Amino acid sequence: MKREPLLLLLGPVAFLAALFVLPVAQVLVLAFDGGDGGPGLAQFARLFADAYHPLVAWRTIRLALLTTLATAALGIPLAYVMHRSGGWVRAALTVVIVLPLMTSVVIRTFGWLVILGRGGLLARMLEPLDLVGRNFSLMHTEAGIVIAMTQVLLPFMALTVLAAISRVDRSLEEAARTMGAGLWQTLRLVVLPLARPGIVSGSLLVFALAASSFVTPMLVGGVRLPVLAGAVYQQVTGTLDWPFAAAQATLLLVLALLVILPYARLGRARGA
Amino acid sequence: MRKHVLAASFVLLAGGDALAQAELVINSFGGAYEKRHRELVIEPFEKANNAKVTVVTVYSADMVAQLRAQKAAPRFDVVHLSGGLEATAAAEGLLAPIRPDQLSNHADLYPFAVANLAKGEGPAYSAAVVGMLYDANKAKPAPTSWLDIANPAYGGHLVLTDLSNNWGLLSFLMINKVAGGTLDNIAPGLDVVKKTLKGATIVSKSPEIQQAFAQSDAWVAPYAQDYAFTLTQAGLPVKFMQPKEGAVFSPITVNLVAGRPNSALALKFIDFSLRAEASAGWAESFRYAPVNRKAQLSPAAKEGVLSGEEAMKNLVTFDPIKIGQMRGAWTEQWNRAIAK
Fold it and tell me: How far is B23 from chain A (nearest CA, A)?
């Protein structure tokens, strides 16, 4: 490698080392605190002593996967429509997607509290249709968490996929259509495979953000549906049990990597 | 924050010189509370004693941390503490003990306010009381016992508060006590809570309780007396009641810092904080329980706060030092019990 790129790397590497690698290393050291002054697995033994913490971990991963699927189901068609439409439609859609990013996640989640709660917008729309009973509420439910997280994270999926789809040569689509492929066939056989790297990185981004998110699950899900990041937050700020919080954070990191690494490889191998 | 720093540096400048003889440095809790504190106690005291009182906004936990750091040369004369931190501060020798004969108001105080003088803690000048809030129009009959949280008459309309919230913790400890548990065994309390879970909403912050009463058809919630007042002011038909097994109180204390030169004036200030007028003022403005028997309450305040010999005798408290030690373990057991 030439010297100039190395110099350019110096800044980001120093930044990452100081603010990411070191803290993560510290968390790892803390997680392997044996409780007796030396290193040990005491924290992890506590984590796996019964089904409670593994179930919290499973909920975290399950909700993150569902959120990823939902953002993909909504984000990919959205990105394609944006790609195909020109002028003000595209501009309007971009604004609609990007605008929520300008608002804090706390504010956006509060919006959902109003919509999902008992007597909220959703309940008032569904009750007259006899679709739901009195006192219907999606607050404090997993469905509510997934709905709110999907809205919060949709821009990451849509924008990443849009970038990939925009790079697909329009003439390839036209060629497919000329040779008799319908719209669905063109999408399935030409556009989606070529946009795969974008879909993969969008999914990874959304999954990682969803798995580590705690504001939305805490506000919408409440205290009875704990997720790992929320449990870490409670340990760090409430009960001040930092070694145990570090062990939970390590578990979250390992689980996320277990999902992310094979998926990222798959994306690269198939996309190439 | 800036104000805080400014005030702290002012304290630094003022400390230690001859001027300090006629001056007291105290903390208060900021906002509307501090404003009322000035009106009820601080300004009348300055006038009556021709003294200057410097008020620094410091919350209890920070206050104890500062006292600890300043142990060799404390810069506060009088500190106001809540949440049981006076017990911690007294145990660490940061406070100077006060004798009953040093307080002219002592004879007028309810016993609960001066229960811990012998342990070196200052007297309570008001108290937050935790009992039960209920919707007077819907919760019929009105609840009478802590165990009414499991009363089927309120099924689906109960709000419980998470243990991460101090009032939630005190309510739960009381439910546990009534159910036969102790601070070393919270299983009986958890069993009662588990029975209610099907229709209960569990919240972690005060505004969620307001939301539950206003929008989600909540009828009954164990919580603090002063918050019932907040709900009443918001126009909700919410009343506070003392369960027959007693309500829990969390004292707000005024303490004498050890190792300060002008403790005579500081003691005067502490005594001044306990006057019937101040006691009544806290009850009128925030619905904190009065500590002084002679406090004259308006009819509205009388209905909203516990007062009188009988009610005060029925107040229960839990050892704050034990709470500090057990909190983590309790939270863990509680989280397991309530998780879906």
Answer: 37
